Amino acid sequence: MARFSRTHNLVPPTIDSTLKVNTETQKPPLLDRLIGIVSPERALKRAESREMLETFPARQAAYRSQLPTRLDTQWNTTIGYMGANNPLNRWRLTKMRDRARDLERNNAVACAMLDRAVENVIGHGFTLRPQTADEGFNKDAKGLWDSWFKTADIRGLSSATAFQQLMFRCYLRDGDVGAAFVRWQGEAYLQMITGDLIDTKFGGYDFANNILDGIKFDSRGRPLEFHLLTYALDGQRSENIVPARDFVFMSRRRGPDQTRGEPCFAQVSQLMDQIDGYTEATVIAARIAACQGLLIKTSDAGKAFMTLQQQANANNFQQASAPMEPGMIRYIRPGDDVVQVTPQQPTQSFPDFISQLLRFAGVTLGMPLELVMLDFSRTNYSSARASLLQAYRAFRTLQQEFADQFLSRVYRWRISKWVKSGALTVPATIEDSFWSHKWITPGWAWVDPQREIAAAMMEIDAGFNTLTDILAQHGREFEDVVTRRSEEIKRLKEQGVPTAHSGLTRDDVPAGQAAAMRPGTSGAAPAPKPKDGLPKEKDDDNDGQQPDDDDDAETPDSE
Q1: What pTM was computed for the model?
Q2: What pLDDT does 110 receive?
Q3: 508-542, pLDDT tens digit by residue?
Q4: What tens digit of pLDDT does each residue of 6-31 get?
Q5: Alpha-carbon gap, residue 397 to 130, rounded angstroms
Q6: Among residues of the chain, what percentage have pLDDT more than 70?
Q7: Is residue 376 part of a domain?
Q8: pLDDT of residue 473
Q9: Residues 128 and 172 grouped into a single domain
Q10: Alpha helices in 131-196, H assignment, sequence order
Q11: Torsion sign, CA atoms 252, 255, 257, 258
């Protein structure tokens, strides 16, 4: 094994100029002053040593953020590397997962963020496109996959699209999710396993067998087995062990030493809870302000308190309550005092403040405020398009992760089974690449179709893009579009139905007419035609005559 040497350059420490060091002259302690009377030399050394101790943190600070202050005493951090999955251990992950699920159930914004993410990343589902050199094999493989994936859920409750949507939703919300390859009555199925069910029966760690958080690893840190919990209807819990080759595991890892994933609300769960509380308090303040709110001061407060109605609170405890309603009239006794309730409510600052909080919440998913709230009333075309482009970039990354971690793994497993069983015959020319494929991901509509279509056509003309890539951005496949278009055109011609053309299309038109059909001139009138029905060509020399076939031709003896 190669050995590496490390060289240390001993450089005198310096104090960061940005740090404030106390340079004010202070009176030495009594002991130092007494020592100074007897031995000034020893007193000087004590003073120098004390100064070094006082400025030691500043001398050692390469970053200001490493210095402790009185404002960050509650900032608890981990100490370096403390093992695999740390700090995302089993107990912390369980707490964060439970909070994320509670937010999905009870927080409208959190639920909406998950909905928007699923709609934009998964949409109507991914489409398989086998990419081998044999078109016949590609067609057969795609047919088998489409037919099987529609009924792949072992519970029989989810379609192919719904199964993908649930897998991705659990992946974001819980941090990780899995799917087991199972066989039932001779047929292959997928069984979705949520993250909390990937665990051992007794929980914790089993270092003797190299099991951590429900996963058994080899010496390289590769998963060997997954321990899955199942619950019977009577609540009895059992544990099943599935080999890693028969299990697809998706996790939102944030470090190379992690295995379990991080919930998408890990950084904003407390903020989301505060948004709920702030919104509720603002609504209650508005409701109180809309009522006739009066406080009655009485000379016998204890007796007045006893006469109040009892009502159960949120914790199901009985407490005294004073009902308030619009137009309420309360009679008071002589000597009582009445004070009107005037609750303070942030009616004017509430929209801006809550919008800023929601921007913070959407950052973790790369989701702009406009998409979180489905409100584009405060944006123009440029700002809305810029926000959506950033969101699309984040969604494409998630699409690629979903395809790589889940769909491609399932496809390779399933097609291998078909080949092994003889359901698919692999030609000799593609024996080493019969699993080659790609996924057509859902796309997004244009913000401004006329501008963006014109820009896409300019990209194709300049050679910066292709029709295949442009169609793929919108969830379409070039081969399917060409096939459908050719069938439509053929059918229209057979039925004698005229086709409509736009000035921005690539339809075959005469040369003179094409010159008038440039981007930005949609609907331009075609060039006039001569009596013989042929298009009039451009008069380049301005002589009022049409060029003939010999005008522009060069011959060897033209000089």
Answers
A1: 0.71
A2: 92
A3: 555 455 445 444 444 444 444 544 444 454 454 55
A4: 444 444 444 344 434 444 556 778 88
A5: 21
A6: 71
A7: yes
A8: 81
A9: yes
A10: 135-149, 160-174
A11: negative
In order, the DSSP letters of 406-440 are: IIHHHHHHHHHHHHHHTSSPPPGGGTTTTT-EEEE
pLDDT at 119 over 80: yes
Residue type, 205: Y
Residue-by-residue DSSP string for 456-477: HHHHHHHTS--HHHHHHHTT--
Residue 189 burial (CB count, 10 A)? 18
Cα separation, 404 vs 412, in Å, equals 11
Phi/psi at 246 (nearest 5 deg)?
A: -110, 25
How many CA atoms does the CB half-sphere of 38 hold within 13 Å?
6
Do 260 and 400 lie in one domain? The reply is yes
Average pLDDT, stretch 115-141?
Answer: 93
* Whether residue 210 sits in one domain with residue 178: yes
State the chain's maximal CA–CA distance in angstroms: 125
Tokens of 359: 């921007």
User: What domain count does the chain have?
Assistant: 4
* CB proximity list for 370: less than 8 A, separation 6 or greater: 376, 378, 379, 384, 387, 388
Report the length, in residues, of the chain. Answer: 559
Span 378-406, mean pLDDT?
A: 90
